[in-house]
């Protein structure tokens, strides 16, 4: 577990994000970087735990029933009905 000083900055970032959401400073849909079905669960958890900060591709992936397969769809693919 990270020392309290390292976690403190993370907590401040989360608090600031929630303040911005509550104040409607940005659209929360912008935080969604992917959509996946349950078949993709293992890949989703892997994608949300990158090996380094430079390997971050996803922030928030929403599970949607009805999506089939192991791929994570982009918001654009999901909006276009690519299931």
Describe the structure.
This protein is an alpha+beta fold and 83 residues long. A two-stranded parallel sheet has the order 1-2. It contains 3 helices and 2 strands, in the order αβαβα. β1 (32-36), α2 and β2 form a beta-alpha-beta unit. The chain has helices at 4-22, 41-47, 75-79; strands spanning 32-36, 60-63. The model has no long low-confidence stretch (mean pLDDT 86).
SSE layout:
Elements: H1 4-22, E1 32-36, H2 41-47, E2 60-63, H3 75-79
Parallel strand pairs: 1-2
> Helix/strand-derived class?
alpha+beta
Low-confidence stretches: none
Q: Strand share of the residues?
A: 5-15%
* Whole-number mean pLDDT: 86
Radius of gyration: 15 Å
The percentage helix is 25-40%
Number of strands: 2
Tell me, what's the shape? globular
Summarize the biggest pleated sheet: 2 strands, parallel
**Spatial order of the strands in the main sheet?**
1-2
| Count of alpha/pi helices | 3
Quick description:
The protein has helices at 4-22, 41-47, 75-79; strands at 32-36, 60-63. It has 83 residues and is of the alpha+beta class.
Features:
single chain; two-stranded parallel ribbon; alpha+beta; 83 residues; 2 strands
């Amino acid at each position: 577990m990270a020392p309290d000083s390292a976690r403190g900055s993370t907590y401040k970032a989360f608090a600031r994000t929630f303040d911005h959401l509550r104040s409607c400073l940005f659209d929360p849909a912008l935080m969604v970087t992917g959509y996946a079905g349950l078949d993709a669960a293992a890949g989703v958890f892997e994608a949300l735990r990158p090996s380094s900060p430079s390997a971050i591709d996803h922030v928030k992936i929403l599970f949607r029933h009805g999506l089939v397969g192991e791929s994570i769809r982009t918001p654009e693919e999901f909006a276009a009905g690519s299931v």
